[in-house]
Amino acid sequence: MSKEEVDTVREQLERFIGQPMGAPATAPEAVNVPMIRHWVDALDDRNPVYLDDEVAAKTRFGGLVAPPAMLQAWTMPRPKIEGIAERGGAPDEMGAENVVTALDQAGYVGTLATNSELEFFRYLRPGDLLQTTNSLESISERKRTGLGLGYFVTWVTRFKTSDAEEVGRQLFRIFKFDPATIGGAS
Amino acid sequence: MGPVMGREMGREMDREMDRDKEPAPPLGVCVGDALPPFVLPVTSTVIVAGAIASRDFMPAHHDSAFARAQGAPDMFMNILTTNGYVSRFVTDWAGPEAMIRKIAIRLGAPAIPGQPLSFSGEIAQVSDEGDERVIEVTIRAANDLGDHATGTVVVSLPLRRPLSRSSA
């Protein structure tokens, strides 16, 4: 592709910017101690504010709180195990067309997560029921990297409780690339 | 050498502060102090336990053959688990009163079985906001493949405790 040529793929992606990446999601269940215990044991994180009522009550949290990094775990979609490998790891059938499926169709099938920025406005407590909304923040111009040609795609997910209090936010950036262009000339 | 000396001095300060019933460590940290290092022996079990606890069933996080077919060297740790260990690394040091405000990481080399992850951290900034001390920590988790995650954690600590100090 010559430099003068218009990047038609990028032009078609413009319409996704500022739009939701998918439908709003509600957590399958409220923040709860069994899932916290599972996480605490899996990561061997012995911070007492997660499971020790007595210690947690004496801290500024005033009681048990969920590990902050579990934020995303609460709203992960329930997986459909059958066929998950064939779907490339997607927990369920992809819904409406979005920027990722559009890039897949244009040949940019490779995906590499490059950045995660989690912000926590308050710690979650058992009983909090989370909902998420997300929006596509930006799509870069086409870039050449060590993985070949592709686009950086950035979106932001907002986490709110059922009474609309925003408790956290995540900015996530991936690089969608065409594996056939690794090391190739532009 | 520098950061180690800084930490020793910080501990000395903490002891002085304890004597005067002043806030407990790590409120007395200074820019440049290092966090106690932590090495996570990454195994298949560590990766799978984290993936399932975070409800992430993507095969790349439990199925080595699938991960290799996708071009990865082996099954690899999911991002939720990485964020979980980064959080644990900071709160193991900062204690139960700590509140993580932000974890911003750039992702690099995969964390795979047989490659221990070395966590290191250094205090980049300390400031007070109202009744909280806000500490920015530069963190790095690396293995033999390179930097797995690098970035910043912002953690806050209360300057005064609402109740008497717990024994924890």
Provide the CATH topology of chain B. Thiol Ester Dehydrase, Chain A
Structural class of chain A: alpha+beta
How is the biggest beta sheet of chain A arranged? Answer: 6 strands, antiparallel
For the report, how would you describe the main beta sheet of chain B? Answer: 5 strands, antiparallel
CATH structural fold name of the largest domain in chain A: Thiol Ester Dehydrase, Chain A
Tell me about this structure.
The complex is a heterodimer of chains A (186) and B (168). By secondary structure, chain A is an alpha+beta fold. Chain A has two domains: 8-29 and 78-181, Thiol Ester Dehydrase, Chain A (Roll); 32-65, no CATH class. Chain A has five helices and six strands. In chain A, strands 1, 2, 3, 4, 5 and 6 form a six-stranded antiparallel beta sheet that branches. The longest helix of chain A has 11 residues, at 33-43. The radius of gyration of chain A is 20 Å and the shape is elongated. The N and C termini of chain A lie close together (7 Å). Chain B has 168 residues and is of the alpha+beta class. Chain B has a single domain, classed as Thiol Ester Dehydrase, Chain A (Roll), CATH 3.10.129.10. Helix content of chain B is 30%, strand content 30%. Chain B has a five-stranded antiparallel beta sheet with strand order 1-3-4-5-2, covered by helices on one side. In chain B, a hairpin with a 2-residue loop joins strand 3 (117-129) and strand 4 (132-143). Chains A and B meet through helix 2, helix 3 and strand 2 of A and helix 2, helix 4 and strand 2 of B. Strand 2 of chain A pairs antiparallel with strand 2 of chain B.
